[in-house]
Amino acid sequence: MGNEIDEIMDEFDFERVHKVMVALNWKWQCGDELPSIADLRRHARTLLRVVVEGKDIHKAHTNGFTAYMHDGLLGLRFEVSSHEIEIEVEKGIGQ
Question: What value does the mean pLDDT of the chain take?
Fold first, then answer.
């Protein structure tokens, strides 16, 4: 599964994420400085490893990043904003 993580790390646009963080002055809770691209890459790889190596862990997220594994898909996202609500699902709809 290491090759899959490497492929995501190679294809993910960390430079774009860094530009967004600079524009928003987005600092992580553990520091007063903006994270570097190297920091972003280390953090993302850690989240991907948690998901790949963890038993029954399908999603790990922090600092804007979400690593996930679901139905044969391994992925990495960076989100600036999101919102979820719980809804009632009728039988056969949305399942």
Answer: 90
